[in-house]
Amino acid sequence: MIGPSARLSWPVVTVVAALLVAVGVGIGYGIRQPVTAPDDGLQTAPVDHSLNATVPGHQHAAPASSEVSEADLTVTLSPDMVARAGIRTVAATSGATTLELRMPGVVQPNAYREVVVTSLVSGRVTQVSADLGARVAAQQPLATIYSPELADAQTTFIAARAEQVAHQQLQTRTQRLTAIGAATRQELEEHEAERAKLDAAVEIARARLALLGIPEDRTQRLAGPQDVVTTTAIPAPFPGVVTRRAVNVGQNIDPSMPLFTIVDLSTVWVIADLYERDFARVRVGSPATITSASYPGMTLRGRVSYIDPQVQPETRTAKLRVEVPNQSGRLRLGMYVDAQVGEGSPRKGLFVPKSAVQIVGSETVVYVAVDAQQGRFAERPVEIGTENGDRVLVVSGLQAGDAVVTDGVFFVRAERERMQGAR
């Protein structure tokens, strides 16, 4: 049976439940109400996002920072930011430039007029007549060689020809005997076969002398041992300068050893590096002008004779060769010179400082001042052409008078990238 105390607990339970419901409603209402910050005397001004400026009357409440427009990639900077970045602009101006390229070059020998001189015979050097750097004429003796090999070839020829002459007399006598029946036809045929062998031996000996540098007229004068020479001269193949000497008196040599290097310096090559971006501006046959700081006022003219089909991966350049006359001999091998390559006709267009041009991704851009007083700058894609000193030709993307950012351009670019990333 339930006692009186138990029956009195139901009203208590009801009261407690009502209190809990009231507390829950109050808490929920409190959560839905905004929290009011203590009044510290500061007010936030409403912002007009279309101009990125505060509403009049609240200019000092919230300074503008920067804004990017998705349509034209416009960056808006506050005056303080412009001042801190030191942003300055320069107007795009009309002008003209030539299609010439100016590049440094190095003088190298004309490889088609450079030869390594060797000896045709083995032997010992008895005399050297040309020193390093000497100018030599065509067929001028450079060195003298004592050669037992040469003497042996001459005596072999003399012996072969003497045997040929003796057998020719024997064959003539056999022909007469055959005519009167004193010799058989077989004997005559044997003599004719032997004569053919001797003729071949003489021609082989003659060819060997020619390979050793003995001219034909001298070979015809070889009648006996008294005509044999044991020395021979090494001649210069053409007029030029001795750029290498690798032989001295008393040295034993053979035909595989390089003895001298002769270079004809009447024409030389100027080798320069052509950058990949300039390939379209130069071709084989393009005129070239060579100057040197060593000889003020000297101008040598030539043409591009070769452009390397391979691009150097490290420098993204290809070797360019200009052949120029050098009759005066002023250009020395290894000299540094200046090469101006290409057409000299002027080309008109707009020019901006090189510092204004930026590479963003795959595009070349400049930053144009849309409203300098409001600090608004637009990123403008452009197509650039040749460089002329510290200026760059702009083919398209700008108009004359457009003010492009030069100083502080990296700050504008960084702000544009930051704001785009934030969006």
Q: What report would you give on this structure?
A:
With 423 residues, the chain is α+β, with helices and mostly antiparallel strands. The protein is 27% helix and 35% strand. It is built from 6 helices and 27 strands. It has a 6-stranded antiparallel β-barrel. The chain has a 5-stranded antiparallel β-sheet with strand order 3-4-24-23-22. Strand 1 and strand 2 form a beta hairpin. Helix 3 runs antiparallel to helix 4. It is rod-shaped, with a radius of gyration of 48 Å.
Oligomer: single chain
The amount of helix comes to 25-40%
Reported for the largest beta sheet, the result is:
6 strands, antiparallel, barrel
The whole-number mean of residue pLDDT values reads 80
Helix- and strand-based class? Answer: alpha+beta
Shape: rod-shaped
Strand order of the largest sheet: 7-16-19-18-17-20
Rg estimate, integer Å: 48 Å
Number of E-type strands: 27
What proportion of the residues form beta strands (DSSP E)? 25-35%
pLDDT under 50 segments (min length 5)?
1-17, 21-71
First-last Cα distance = 75 Å
Q: Treating each run of at least 4 consecutive H or I residues as one helix, how many helices?
A: 6
